[in-house]
Amino acid sequence: MQAPRDPILATLLDLDGQVLVVDPAGRHYVRFVVTRVPASPEKPHGIDYLLTLHGPDGKRLVGFDNAHAVGRRKGRQAHDHRHRLGTVKAYEYRDAATLLEDFWTAVDSVLRERGVTP
User: Is the pLDDT at 18 greater than 60, yes or no?
Assistant: First the structure.
């Protein structure tokens, strides 16, 4: 099974290992772990990914990943999912650009809710 061409995938893969401070006080940060894997029914897009926002205590506040199954979707175990403030929901992976956009939207939302950014 070959993953379809995704023009932003190289950008996502380049973020692997990056840790970025995302607030003026330097207390919240995001972390990216992204690697290529053979395409499979569980990971048809051919990547393992973990994108996370952490609070000052290091606790994960937001996460998007495909590390484990979280329910059924389209007759198969869904591995793509998101974490937000202790909840886990299935996530419909479309492409790398949408994943990055959805992740940063969730990060911005949580930082606003916590009063970290306006």
Answer: yes
